Amino acid sequence: MTKVVILAGGLGTRLAEETVTKPKPMVEIGGQPILWHIMKIYAHYGFKEFFVALGYKGEVVKRYFLEYNNMSMDMTIDLSSGKIRKRGADNDDWVVHLIDTGPDSMTGGRVKRLEPLLKEEAFMVTYGDGVADIDLEALLDFHRAHRRLGTVTAVRPPSRFGGIKMEGDQVAKFTEKPQMGEGWINGGFMVLEPSIFKYLKTDASILEVDCLERLAKDGQLTAYRHEGFWQCMDTLRDKRFMERLWEEGKAPWKVWA
Prior knowledge:
By secondary structure, the chain is an alpha/beta fold. The chain has helices at 16-19, 34-44, 58-66, 68-71, 107-113, 136-146, 207-217, 236-247; strands at residues 4-8, 28-29, 32-33, 49-54, 74-78, 83-87, 95-100, 123-127, 130-132, 150-155, 163-167, 170-175, 185-186, 190-192, 221-226, 230-232. A hairpin with a 2-residue loop joins strand 11 and strand 12. The longest helix is centred in the C-terminal third of the chain and has 12 residues, at 236-247.
């Protein structure tokens, strides 16, 4: 089964209101960390073995998964004997590897530290702050068909400004952060072959510069165009936008039942 790496060690400085006590991937949308939302997307397509690359406040992520089952089920506690009876859990069948990849490692350095665990076959990599309604099976098929060392998912960035929908000279409605921005950007959801490790040398290696840019220069990087929904939780405004979509039952990234 294809393994999934999630980069979860950054500081998230532009979300300082939230990240002073937790790493960015643990900022919640609808009562669950955005990390959980990302994992649910992958698991929906059958990718259920995760390697979470930890750094800043990694202990918060570890504590979440240590308590994951207990917090999702009912229980009866006999205080006199200390016995606990658990019931009603419908647990996710994931295997989650929580790996400390250093407090100051860059994105490439974190992936490099996982090399001993990822040497056998192509693996997926994504950032711990972005969601999409992407078809991950189609992404993997695309990567295999093109026989390159790497594939990135190209997305249209959301506009940083509100939009105005016009009817003639009249303003019909305001739209907040329309999905179709200008150009294409790397939206995460990457597929990489083990050969990419030759591009990554130290903790200071930057995945986007030392690996992806060099792969592109060598003709070894393809782009899977995703025209659907994609959103990065980069600021508090992004978080509020995603919270509203979730609360209204309109979260496009909720591809699971």
